[in-house]
Amino acid sequence: MHRRSTPRSFCPAESGHLLLWAAYGVRGTLRSSAAFAACVEHATVSSVFAPPIEVLLVDDQRAILSGVTALIESEAPHMRVAGHARCGRQALELARSARPHVIVLDVDLGGEDGLDLIPLLLGCCSAAIVVFTCLAEPCVRLRALRLGAAGFVAKTAPGEELIAAIRGATG
């Protein structure tokens, strides 16, 4: 005769599988409220259920878009790229349709002044704008902030600074 074993209590958060914890809490079998409470101690609800920060990238250089995309996607599941735009018109269309949380915007968009887009972007969506540029002069930074940018990062800065600026713009 085959004896059926009783499933033991399992806490995916304890094993580092936070996303599995979210699904397990709904469909799984946590043996008691004490087991559930112990599981919750290992994970915060915000880290499990928070949607990723959606980022729209606006830059006319494909290599920059590719590199910044890789950087942001390395932060998954907490961040993701919502789209790419290479000019002002595309940026405005994507801002309206994708509704990103943050827009990473270059100042020089192939002859177009990216800073002129800041009020237009702020008018069509609720995204925070982080200016990401090789033009790091104080007057450019001041203009960007006066127009409503939430942050300013030089392209020569380490990637961690851009990630921190994106996080800071949402909080």
Provide the low-confidence segments as ranges. 1-32, 38-44
Strand content: 15-25%
- So what's the oligomer here? single chain
Helix fraction by DSSP (H/I, runs of at least 4)? 40-55%
Give the SSE order as H and E letters: HHHEHEHEEEHEHEH
Radius of gyration: 21 Å
Query: How are the strands ordered across the major sheet?
Result: 2-1-3-6-7
What is the average per-residue confidence, as pLDDT, rounded to a whole number? Answer: 81
Major sheet characteristics = 5 strands, parallel
Principal-axis shape: globular
CATH class membership of the largest domain: Alpha Beta
What is the terminal-to-terminal distance?
59 Å
Protein name: Response regulator
Domain Response regulatory: 54-170
Pfam families: Response_reg
Modified residues (4-aspartylphosphate): 106
Tell me what you see in this structure.
It contains eight helices and seven strands; from the N terminus they run αααβαβαβββαβαβα. It folds into two domains: 1-50, no CATH class; 51-170, Rossmann fold (3-Layer(aba) Sandwich). With 171 residues, the protein is of the alpha/beta class. It has helices spanning 18-27, 33-41, 45-49, 62-73, 88-98, 117-124, 138-147, 159-170; strands at residues 53-58, 79-85, 102-105, 108-109, 112-113, 128-133, 151-154. A five-stranded parallel beta sheet has the order 2-1-3-6-7, sandwiched between helices. Strands 4-5 form a two-stranded antiparallel ribbon.
